[in-house]
Structures are given as structure tokens and as C-alpha cells.
Amino acid sequence: MSLPARFSDLKREIAAAYPDFEERATRAWIEIIEQLKEVTADISNHGVDYIPQVNYSDLETLSKEDIDKIKRRGCVVIRDIVNDTEAKDWKTSLEDYITANPGLDGYPANNPIFYEIFWTKAQLQARSHPNILSTTLWLTNLYHIKGESVEGMDLSNPLSYADRFRIRRPGPQHTNILPPHVDGPTIERWEDPALREYFSEILSGNWHLHDPYEMGGRIKARNSHYERPNQASIFRSFQGWLALSETGPTEGTIQFFPSVALANAYIILRPFFRPLPSADATSIMDAKNWEFDISSPDFPGIHPLDGGYIGPRPTPALHPHLRLETTMTSVPKMRPGDAVFWHCDVIHAVEEEHKGQGDSAVIFIPAVPQTPYNQAYVEKQRETFLSGRRPPDMPQGKCAEFPEGKREDHYVGFGTLDDISLAGRKAMGFPVGVVQG
Ligand SMILES: [Fe+2]
Fold first, then answer.
1. So what's the pLDDT on residue 120?
2. pLDDT at 177 exceeding the cut of 80
3. Which pLDDT value is given to residue 353?
4. What spacing in Å lies between the alpha carbon of 17 and ligand 1's midpoint?
5. How far is CA 4 from CA 7, 9, 10, in A?
6. What is the domain extent for residue 322?
7. The domain spanning residue 158 has which CATH number?
8. Is 305 helix (H, G, I), strand (E, B) or coil?
9. Is residue 124 part of a domain?
10. 179 CA from centroid of ligand 1 (Å)
11. 313-340 per-position pLDDT tens digit
């Protein structure tokens, strides 16, 4: 479906805002396509080994080379953040919750993989585990901020975002649940002035100077202009999940396009170019078969949904130079207590089929810096926990039976304040008295 006509005005507005836009963007486009040839070959040749892996206990002593690699690739597996027994106990606790409360909402509705449940004991304990909080803090501190600090901002204080859990059984996946996509802002990447600032080096043609770890523009951004349910409104420096069971490649695990700055450069400039009508599947790979064009309102990979937009969802047809068929790289085998994290701009997907034997269970836990917007969000989120409702960013399940939205607090095994560590309470925005116990 096409985007509204006003989005061609948006392209014209961007083109007018940057000096010599056509010339500079075209030069950048050619360079990016050239660079992608090299990087995509490197990714495909290395496969699983391209995803950096480190031990939790080594986080504070990693070399600059290791850290640079993690930043460049935009993703990392961190081993043994919590011990196996604790992680396995959380899986058992989630399974007991599902058994004790038949008919929980989830997706797909008839046999859920993702549960619309946010406040189980296991989730509260995992999110507030001191090692999880110190890991997310470490990840956030891979970022930096240019110039003066912003009032209300504290990068030494991790916040807690309530997200779902997933238990996936072996077998094929309901089609197309999670094809390659980027989380968070969709059309806002171009529409929001602060996000344009974040991407300004790309838009001005200096794409190689784009730093996805400079959070100045990011913290001022309005990530969700249309308030579409399921679109995170906060700034998560990294999204991630903690494994509660073993899962490896071909077992329905997550995949990445592990080159964050380059993917950003390509995705952000893609809407300003189109292939020549004469280009075929082979010649489309050559930059000279593309031309600058801002007449169309379309932003390839961005699609209307539920009153807002979804995407970027790059595809081999729309974004051929990413060579997604061979570059979407599965994470290596994960064991209970390991976690994987990916920068908020990283293209990721979930393998369509789970060919393994056992359930693959994970709790989603992002890294959330304390910024003024994020702090206000976690305080609203805290109130939803206290009243047993779903977090503000999540679909509320409003219907005739539940006009205010669905609640969780009548379920057997609903978590309480006692399941949240003191540090976790602070991360949830509880006042000092509650934090001190
Ligand atoms: Fe995602």
C-alpha cells in the first residue's frame, strides 16, 4: 500500500534542508553500495562467528578492539549473566503460569509463542536481577553524548522496560511473524526533527561520519508520532533477550544484519533513489542503474498499520544491496542464563522454522537509559504494574468485557513488589522509600 501523498513533501523538505542534497546523497549512495559489497561478503563468509560473544565476567576488562567490534556489528552475545539454575527455574515458573492460567492472550492467538503477559514473578525477578541491570547499564554506556548533558539524564542509572516473554515449540512458525525489521521509530526516522539530527551525517552525504552511538538526537526524539500499539515510545539503547533454555541456529532463534552504521546509511538514503526501469535482478546491484528521485511518497520498507506505520522492513526486492538472503546471521547456540542484545537500529528477524527438539524460552529485556522521557514512561509503567494492567506501550486488550483494558492481577502467580530487587525498584521509578525497602 502506498504512503499518503504528504510524504513526498517530506522528501522535498529534507532535500531542501541539506545543501547540494542531490549531488551529495548520490555520491554517498554510490559509496554505500560499494561498501556494502565488501561488508556483506565478509558477513556471509563468517556466518555465526560474525556475532561477537563475551562473558559477563569479562565486561569490565574487554579490549578496545573487542568493544569496537561490538559497536560496529551492533550486537553481542553475553554469556552467563545469571546462572543456569536460576534461568531454568524462571522457565519452569513461566510454564507453571501458563498452565495455571489457561487461555492467556498471546500471538498467534490459537497457540501463542509471544505472551501478552508482563508481570509474572519470573519476569520481575529477571528484569531486576543485579547482573541484568549492570549488563544493560554497560550496554547503554557504549553510547555517548556530545556537548552538555541534558537535565534529567543519568547514564549511570538503568531503567526497566516491561516487555513480553516467548516460549517457542519446535516446528514451523506462523508465517511472517518477524521477517527482517528494525524496532522503534518507523517513518519517524525521517519525519521527526531530532531523529533527522541523529541521522544528519547520512543526510548531508557524510555517511561514514554517522555515529549510531551518539545519543543526543536520540534522547530528544519522539519515536512514536502515531502512538501505534506495539511501537516502543521510549529510547532503548539495546533491545535484548535472556535465554531460559538452550537454543541454537535452525532452532527458531534470532538473526541479525550485523553492521549497524552501514545499514542505517543505506536505509535512510534508500527512499531518495529508485532503480532504473531497465534494471533486472543482476544489474540492479550496480549503483549506476539507480537514479535520484523524490517524486514518490513511498519510503521502501515502511508500511501503514493500525493508524500509524510499521518498518523499516527491508526485503531482498526493496533493499537488494543488503543481500539479506545470505547476510541475516543467526546467533550462536545460547544456553540458559546467556543473553543477546542488539543496538536499537539493527535489522533483525526470527528464523521461520524451529527444527530443534526442545522449547526455546526467552524473556525480552532491553537496555533503557535514564532520560527525561524514559523516566516519565517508567513512572507511568510502574502505575500499570501496581494496578495489574498492561504497560503503556503495549496493546491494552480493550473490548466490551474489558473497556479499561485487560488486567493480569487476578492470574495465579502474578508478581508482587517482593519479587523486585531494591535496585530493580529504582529502575522501575519507585520513590526512594520503596527503593530502600
Ligand atoms: Fe523486533
1. 98
2. no
3. 83
4. 31
5. 6, 10, 11
6. 6-435
7. 2.60.120.330
8. strand
9. yes
10. 9
11. 999 999 999 999 999 999 999 999 999 9
330 C-alpha to center of ligand 1: Å? 14
Report whether pLDDT(100) > 80: yes
Average pLDDT over residues 54-64: 98
Cα 431 to ligand 1 centroid, rounded to whole Å: 31
Give the model's pLDDT for residue 212.
98
Does 127 fall in a domain?
A: yes
183 CA distance to ligand 1 centroid (A)?
5
Place of cell 563468517: 46
Q: How far is the CA of 390 from the centre of ligand 1 (A)?
A: 19
Per-residue pLDDT at 147 exceeds 80: no
Supply the pLDDT for residue 109.
85
CA of 435 to the centre of ligand 1 (A): 31
**Do 137 and 60 contact (CB within 8 A), yes or no?**
no
Q: Is residue 396 part of a domain?
A: yes
Cα 231 to averaged position of ligand 1 atoms, centre (Å): 10
Cα–Cα distances in angstroms (integers) from residue 360 to residues 95, 173, 182, in the given order: 12, 13, 22
Residue 239 Cα to ligand 1 midpoint, Å, equals 8
Q: What is the mean pLDDT of residues 5-21?
A: 96
**Residue 1 domain-assigned (yes or no):** no
Give the chain's domain count.
1
Widest Cα–Cα separation across the chain: 69
Q: What value does the CA radius of gyration of the chain take, rounded to a whole number of Å?
A: 22
Q: How many CB atoms lie within 10 A of CB 109?
A: 9
Distance 19 CA to ligand 1 centre (A): 34
CA of residue 186 to ligand 1 center, whole Å: 12
